[in-house]
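Predict the structure of Relaxase/Mobilisation nuclease domain-containing protein.
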Amino acid sequence: MISGAERGKGGDALARHLLKPENDTVEVLVPRGLGSRDLIGQVRELVALSLGGRTDRPVYHVHCDPDPAIQDNDGARARFWALFEAEFRLGGQPFAGAVHVKHGRRHEHRVYSLVRQSGAVVDLAWDFLRRERCGRIVEYEFGMPSPTPSKHSRAIVSALRQAGRDDVAAWMEASGTTDAARPVARLSPQERLIETRTGVPLDDLRAAALAAWTASTDGAAFLAALRERGLDLRQGRSGPVVVDRTGTAHLATRLVGAAARRADGTRIPAAEVKARLAGLTLQNHGETHGQDRRAHDRSAVAQAPGGGPRDGAGAGGNPGREVAHRGAGGTDADGGRSDRRSVEHALSRLVARPREARLRGRLRLMAPGRNRELAYALDGIRRRDWVWVPGMTDIWGLPITPDGRPRLG
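Done. Here is the predicted structure for Relaxase/Mobilisation nuclease domain-containing protein.
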């Protein structure tokens, strides 16, 4: 029994993930405690119900995938959810979900609200270990010959004995799972996302870093060997980082250590990596990012049809391409707009404010170094075609309307 979970904010993207057409079939579950008819509406409702809780991650997305050796897939899933809800005290909590069939395997996704009616948030401490324990019980009860390997096997056996399930604990021990070497995933979930985003296989990166390590005897030689392989070494927040061709940083101690462990089973200690690199003076990672980006932009403009640097009149520029620039007398805060557009944009927001706020704003704008042009424009707005009740004036002695606000023509 394989299970996985992720806590998050919810949203339409999660609902669309559960409805992905790449599955052979998708069967939307009957929700609990929700009134919406479609899955997107149900997930939105889960989020809305959780607004009173003191958490910014109010939903818990969980899936369970029974092993093909279990013939009663539906029964195994029902048993898992019963154990899971009892373990986390989720009985009665609203949820939505779907059952997928993909490549012939039937598995189920559920999205739970983590906020109780009292506003308390469900405790998910050690959730991976607790879900693994539920999975082992299901495997035992549904006749699997041996449990799914887990790096938490010894801790699961201990917890099972404390809970009075000596039968399941003895079955796990008899299978040898508590004595086996702990399985290590090739990639962590975060590393898998980085590999997908950058397109750089982490195994190749590890192999290159290890080759540079073995080909060197000190920090300077290691840096040179990395550069020969298209990599670089910078100073990161947690220590030296190896930078790949996309500019993505990988912690050097972790990269070299994991590469050595996968190569011969012996990890190079982080202290050894730090000691070799201790004498290097490295540039901080990201220190030249802005300059590199500007150089890249200039190169792209030069290589484009009709490329070349643009001046204020647009000479040599790309047809149809606008480049932000400052108007005469403009400031960095103008964002490339002329003074008039800047005044009109700010004025439209000022006019909508209460008159007391407009007065305070005008006084601030008239201060030395402020935008007097905007202050004069605000004054002009005050004096345009007002309708007033005789005898009523504002703090400046100007007539106002019965509702206490200037009426614009």
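Confidence is low (pLDDT under 50) at residues 289-297, 299-342, 383-389.
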